[in-house]
Amino acid sequence: MALILWFVFLCVVGVVCINLYPSACGSGKIGNFWKGRHAKVVAIGKGALWTLWGVAVLSPLYYEFPSHTSVVVTFDRDHVIEHRLGKFCWEWGEFSNLPTGDMAISSGVTFLTENPKVRHLRYSLNAGISNPEAFYSDPLRRINASDVDSEHGADAASFTYSPGRSVKEEVEALVITQLFEFNNRFSKQLVGFYNPLDSKQQQDFRALIEPWLNDQLAKDGVTVVAKNFKID
User: Fold this and answer.
1) In terms of domain of life, where is this protein from (predicted)?
2) Which of 6, 13, 58, 89 is the most buried (most CB within 10 A)?
3) In angstroms, what CA-CA distances link 90 with 61, 104, 118, 154?
4) How confident is the model at residue 83 (pLDDT cuts 50, 70, 90)?
């Protein structure tokens, strides 16, 4: 739709420029106006009309800047192209901002031990997009500027279907969903982790959580690295 509107806009501006251009005005009020003007005025008029035409042609084009925590990416079908200095983007083009650092995500589980005691195991991990092609294989994770709410602008941290939802929030949602599954599926094994000062328990915990989570998240191009667990 944006492309069609741009084409109509170009046609209207083109007709206006042609009718006002000095060399095209041989008669009538417009022609008489240019004939009676100094050569410099005519040159300025020509320049102004060419400028108007250039603005119309480039009106859907704007520059998407990266941030200190992300890079601008565009897409060539399934291939993701990074632009660390930013990129000129068309209004109807697809792009996104790819986070360059890890995202910290926390979770935990509370269970009743055999003693009986209530124990709360807390842990955190770092998540990142290790395979951008897999992550952006879902078209809804790409931004099409013409579909973004104009009131909020074409925020490169947003998705077309949910303005304001960031890439980071999408990754967090993917990871947290799997953490719920992990806490439920491995609740019996998690009971065995009770001493955060025991390096063997910490190694076993990471060996339990990392392979399973990374296997679940592989299709989305997300990788996690677990940190040490804690007990409350």
Assistant:
1) Bacteria
2) 89
3) 5, 33, 57, 11
4) confident
pLDDT (mean) for 69-94:
80
Same domain, yes or no: 198 and 115: yes
Is there a single domain that holds both residue 220 and residue 171?
yes
The total number of structural domains that make up the chain: 3
Instruction: Write the DSSP assignment of 72-122 as a string of letters.
Output: EEEEETTEEEEETT-EEEETT-EEEEEE-S-EEEEEEEEEE-SSS-EEEEE
- Measured distance between the N- and C-terminal CA atoms of the chain, rounded to whole angstroms: 56
Asked whether residue 89 falls in the same domain as residue 204, the answer is no
73 and 40 within one domain:
no
Are the C-beta atoms of 98 and 73 separated by less than 8 Å? yes
What was the pLDDT predicted at 28?
Answer: 58
Residues 45 and 69 in one domain: no
Are 119 and 111 in contact by the 8 Å Cβ rule? The answer is yes
What is the average pLDDT score of the chain?
76
Question: Can you list the alpha helix ranges (DSSP code H) found in the chain?
Answer: 2-20, 28-35, 39-58, 132-135, 167-185, 187-190, 199-217
Which stretch of 65-74, 150-159, 196-205 has the lowest confidence by average pLDDT? 150-159
Give dist(CA 109, CA 190) in Å, integer.
8
Query: Mean pLDDT across the stretch 195-199?
Result: 93
Domain around 144: 103-231
Query: Could you tell me if 217 and 116 lie in one domain?
Result: yes
What is the average pLDDT across 125-153?
71
Residues 92, 111, single domain; the answer is: no
